[in-house]
Amino acid sequence: MLTYTIRRLVLSVPTLLFISLVIFLLLQLAPGDPMAQVPLTVPPEVKEKMREALGLGQPLHVQYWKWLVQMFWVEPKVFIDWLTTSSALLGWLPDTTLYQGELRVISWQTRSPVMDLIVQALPQTLTVVGTAYIVGILIAIPIGIYSAYRQYSVFDQAGTFVTMIGFSIPPFFTGPLLIVIFSVQLGWFPFIYDTTHRVTDWPSFVTQVKQMIMPVMVLALQTTAQISRFMRASMLDNLRQDYVRTARAKGLGEAVVVMVHVLRNSMIPVITIIALGVPSIFGGAIITEVVFSVNGIGSQLINALFANDLPLVMTVTFIFAMLIVLFNIIADVLYGVLDPRIRYD
């Protein structure tokens, strides 16, 4: 398994390089001058430095090479310096000064390093997306188990109906619908997510929970719909196996048969689906963050697209591609670890 994991990680490098090249070439086909969005008040020397940062006006291979150097050589040095500086206060690692003022990936819209903008927005996205995914999993698994055990019951049919709605209705519809019902009509929750809010006491915690409920509901609906269907199908497949009849013939209780033997085997494919679903929920968060004004990575990507901020668009898109490749590897490894029948040797 270790050899397989290392081999997959090594193979992911050319895959990610190819993805980054495709993203770069597609963005280069976008019409318009990339510097047209820069305000006229920006000094000429600053504009020239911004052009130099990505090699604008130079051949495409030079521009792409500069982005690769900045992304995979300069930015890691900045991160290591930040990490060692933070840890040096506690004595973990010695302080380093690897970054020597090299040009970083600069946002054309804000004229700030792109990775700094992403780091600032990342906590908001992780809070909403992480909470929604956990809530969706915790709801989906019990629903899938009970729906399979009570196949064709009223609960199973109602669950099927709700999951079809979750699959069919996109976030850009459910988001405004929840705003109209719970914010405009009932006035229960705020429809704008306050990213400046800080939790310091119980009332501020309640406020934070209230503003998270609707975006979490929108994202968790799709997660619940997908995982509960896979959980139900996996449970039904295992409930028909011979070992279940053998366990019941031995006199084991129904709860032990279902919740121990059947559930353990049924979770093997579901866990891989959960791992593969992580990148997709980040994609769903793009629209959700825009609808609820969450200042996260998704809303940054949409704003960068409208502003023709190609460095920010390329970096965020490449991060999403890295997530997809990474969690595909994690899913394959988990499947091999959990299922002893699978061998990658």
Task: List descriptors.
11 helices; 345 residues
Main sheet makeup: none
Shape: globular
**N-to-C SSE series?**
HHHHHHHHHHH
Broad CATH class of the largest domain: Mainly Alpha
| Rg over CA atoms | 24 Å
Helical residues, percent: over 70%
Low-pLDDT residue spans: none
Per DSSP, the total helix count is 11
User: Approximately how much beta-strand content do the residues carry?
Assistant: under 5%
CATH architecture of the largest domain: Orthogonal Bundle
Estimate the mean pLDDT confidence.
79
CATH superfamily assignment of the largest domain?
MetI-like
Strand tally: 0
What would your notes on this structure say?
With 345 residues, the chain is mostly helical. It folds into 2 domains: 39-107, no CATH class; 115-338, MetI-like fold (Orthogonal Bundle), CATH 1.10.3720.10. The chain has helices spanning 2-28, 44-54, 60-88, 114-149, 154-168, 171-185, 202-239, 242-249, 254-291, 297-306, 310-338. The longest helix has 38 residues, at 202-239.
Write the layout of secondary structure elements.
Elements: H1 2-28, H2 44-54, H3 60-88, H4 114-149, H5 154-168, H6 171-185, H7 202-239, H8 242-249, H9 254-291, H10 297-306, H11 310-338
Helix pairs in contact: 1-11, 4-5, 4-7, 4-9, 5-7, 6-7, 6-9, 7-9, 9-10, 9-11, 10-11
How would you summarize this macromolecular structure in one to three sentences?
By secondary structure, the chain is mainly alpha-helical.
